[in-house]
Amino acid sequence: MDWIEDKLRILKPMLPARQWNYLRLGYLSEKDFRRKKEIENMIDLLIAKHVPNLKMETILLPPPERDQLSGEYPIGEAVYAEKPYGFFGVREGEWIRHCGIFGKTGSGKTTLSARIIRELCRHRNPFLIFDYKRNYRDLLKHPDFQNEEILVFTVGRNNLVPFYFNPKIPPPGVEEYVWQKQLAQIIEKVYLLGPGANDVFMESAGEATFRDMQQRVLKQRKKARELLWWASVKRTLNAINYPGLGEMVNSPKSYSIPELLNRKVILELDGLSASDQAFIIGTLLLWIYHFRMRQPEREILKHFIIIEEAHHLFLKTGKEEDIADIIMREIRELGEAMVIIDQHPSKMSVSALGNLSTKFVMNLSLNEDVFAVANAMLLEKDERKYLSMLTLGQTICRSDRLQHPILLSVPGFPLQKGAVTDENLKKHMEKYLKDSGMENPPLAERSTLQGLPKKETLSPLGRILLEHIAQKPVLGLVKRFKELGFKVSYGYKVIEELVSLDLITPLTIDGNKLYDLTLNGKRALGRRMRQKGRGGLEHRYYIEKIKEHYLQNDGFTFVEKDDIDLVVESFERRMAVQVETGKSDIQANLTKLGKFKADLKYVVTTNPETELRIRKTLQDFLIPEREKIFVLYAKDFLSHPPVL
Fold first, then answer.
1. Is the pTM higher than 0.90?
2. Structure confidence by residue, pLDDT tens digits, 354-368
3. Are residues 283 and 405 in the same domain?
4. Are residues 266 and 385 in the same domain?
């Protein structure tokens, strides 16, 4: 039965409704097999007459009745069997259920979005466009927009038409703690902060600006795993406060967002990095969402938001929904219509794709993109191939009011690309900047980050490794990398960085390659790190080795007890150990060892020369209980340690 319904659906747009209903009802009600076959043959003949290209590679999507196509915002001509069928338009109430435009580069997305923007201007709808490639400034030179007052800001390019917006200031009426928590969720998403780093971030969230947050974070002292979280937060705040974005978000004076929501605004984002672009879009959406939430009207179209490269914000992640998806889902009830534009719908979250009432798809060639859009538009398996057959000026449209997708031909919209230069734009915005009082706004104190980091600057991971070496100096590299969660290959690169900056120096002790802090390394850590134990790295290495052995054999160890390097105790006996490298006062150390009350007393030497000096000192000087002091070379002691 399905196959005859498919044939009737193909034929429906080509026949008068009465004739089509007669065929369908005649076939369904006929009991005689031969008569039923005759009606089927008649249907095939009518298809061959009215749809001659059915067997060829032709996009064939039967449109509905013509009265179902019409809408207040005309988009393009519905095409069926390569013939115009009727003009399709989006209806007023459909916009707040959101719209999506998808297609690869050069498929006509900008042409379609320009036609939509022209219709928005015709209906006097305010809008906010997030422009990634300076495409929409060229509308200023198009005849259809000559009488429109469109504001264009160069976000991050503060020498032209800067945009000032402090995301730390919540909309009127929004509780501070609610705003800071949701703002942190946006930052966590776009700058890839984890839950632990988010916790460190919230410790400074109460500061008035991101620069104040940065200063507070730099004064914090973290250890172990928190140090990695701290480095992630520092990296994020460095990015936000970097010149360009930093002046924008830390400015003491900002544009009035409620006033801009009543105007036609374009924000050019090409002066920012991908993460910074998503940050600005996300925080503005959050601000608008809370601002609209305080207004009593519901489901009344008030404003349009057009977002290019939307997958940067609505990125597919492991979560079912994140803060951006929730805003998109709920903001429609508040009167905000969203038009999202993207080249790769497969990268977008399922929630974002699923909340689009109207979808326009241009040519797609990547299999993942075809599959994602075909599912979102409920295309049949044999219809999915159409998405790669579309030519320039063609789009497949799926609207919630239509039972099936349709093919549209979108008229051209010639834009002279590059017609509006930076100087033209600056002149165009002069009057608005002067009237708004933002012509020469007071600037925030400039970031200490000037240009690119210098080559000799220590990276965050480099400092983490440096502090770990200071805390655990005798740990082997492989174990050290494992504790820090570094890949071994990357860990060696960070080691090379520290050596090249003269912060650590390699030492070979007992056949093991270890690293000790240089004077520069100690200066880099300042007063934050205290060296554990006295003596040099070789001295501490052997103490740790001896300590490790006795801890594994149920002994109790005490480092630097009563000025003795190591004291080991069992339930029955006590042993005192002094480790000598030859760099300290041998006579004084032997005197302390002799006076210490212990059953066993050992001097462990790290080299033969020191061993000879100690034996001579014991012979020449009256050391207390010198007959009880045993002198052993370190390797001999570790190979046959005394039993307590």
1. no
2. 999 999 999 998 889
3. yes
4. yes
